[in-house]
């Protein structure tokens, strides 16, 4: 699969979200960070904004729920128009049931892991998911520096995906930029969330193309891809 670039609107101008979505129309997905000021110490947006954004763009929405009680709230984001909904393993009471409910409502089901959360306890859950998100910063704020210590975790996750023969997307989020995306791709990621690296550029659409090109080139040389 070709690398996918998901610009994060957390780094966009919230007063001009429709315009900011149009500025990256060549992106694969639009990453929407939902924060509740409980699971993470920041407050962003919710269902009404997702509904409005879904009407304003043809780019599918990738909603990342950094919230408590995702079992209760996640299905509402599918109904609001999200094409992919990510809940956190640390917050979900019944992750398998929740993933199945998200899928049943017509969206892709994804689970996220904070930096300190290991992948191994969730190995048996992977077939229930369409995507696994590995946070490469502590969730809550954009613009943080990439955590290189997450690279071995990305590699281990890619190995588990291969072990079970899964068509599971592996997303990374946090500090992804021109200087880090190749390392992520080499380690096994194929979906990349980029905030300031896209919206901080003079031409966000060109930044998306450049990041995708870098990731594709690194993936082509990666051992995990060559063995696939």
From TrEMBL:
Which positions in this protein are listed as binding a divalent metal cation?
31, 33, 64, 173
Pfam families listed in its UniProt record? Ribul_P_3_epim
Query: NCBIfam families annotated for this entry?
Result: PRK05581.1-4, rpe
The residue stretches assigned to a coiled coil in this entry are none
As for what it does, the entry says: Catalyzes the reversible epimerization of D-ribulose 5-phosphate to D-xylulose 5-phosphate.
Q: How is the cofactor bound?
A: Binds 1 divalent metal cation per subunit.
Q: What is its EC number?
A: 5.1.3.1
Record SUPFAM superfamilies: Ribulose-phoshate binding barrel
InterPro entries according to UniProt: Aldolase_TIM, Ribul_P_3_epim, Ribul_P_3_epim-like, RibuloseP-bd_barrel
Annotated substrate binding sites:
8, 64, 140-143, 173-175, 195-196
Keyword set, alphabetical order = Carbohydrate metabolism, Isomerase, Metal-binding
GO molecular function list: D-ribulose-phosphate 3-epimerase activity
Q: What are the positions of the active site?
A: 33 (proton acceptor), 173 (proton donor)
Source taxon at top rank: Bacteria
Query: What is the protein name for this chain?
Result: Ribulose-phosphate 3-epimerase
Cofactor(s) needed: Fe(2+); Co(2+); Zn(2+); a divalent metal cation
Instruction: State the pathway, as annotated in the record.
Output: Carbohydrate degradation
Family membership: Belongs to the ribulose-phosphate 3-epimerase family.
User: What is catalyzed by this enzyme?
Assistant: D-ribulose 5-phosphate = D-xylulose 5-phosphate
Q: What HAMAP family does the record tag this protein with? A: RPE (MF_02227)
Main EC class the enzyme belongs to? isomerase
């Amino acid at each position: 699969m070709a690398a996918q670039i998901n610009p994060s609107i957390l780094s966009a101008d919230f007063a001009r979200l429709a315009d900011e979505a149009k500025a990256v129309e060549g992106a694969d997905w639009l990453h929407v960070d939902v924060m509740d000021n409980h699971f993470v110490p920041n407050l962003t947006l919710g269902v009404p904004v997702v509904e409005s954004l879904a009407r304003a763009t043809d780019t599918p929405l990738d909603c990342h729920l950094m919230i408590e009680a995702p079992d209760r709230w996640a299905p509402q984001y599918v109904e609001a128009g999200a094409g992919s909904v990510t809940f956190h393993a640390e917050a979900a009471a019944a992750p398998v049931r929740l993933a199945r409910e998200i899928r049943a409502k017509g969206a892709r089901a994804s689970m996220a892991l904070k930096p300190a959360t290991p992948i191994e306890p969730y190995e048996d859950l992977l077939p229930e998911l369409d995507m696994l998100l590995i946070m490469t910063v502590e969730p809550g704020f954009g613009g943080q520096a990439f955590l290189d210590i997450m690279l071995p975790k990305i590699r281990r996750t890619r190995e588990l995906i291969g072990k079970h023969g899964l068509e599971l997307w592996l997303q990374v989020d946090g500090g992804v930029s021109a200087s880090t995306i190749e390392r992520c791709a080499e380690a096994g990621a194929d979906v990349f969330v980029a905030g300031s690296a896209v919206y901080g550029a003079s031409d966000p659409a060109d930044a998306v193309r450049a990041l995708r090109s870098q990731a594709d080139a690194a993936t082509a040389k990666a051992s995990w891809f060559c063995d696939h």
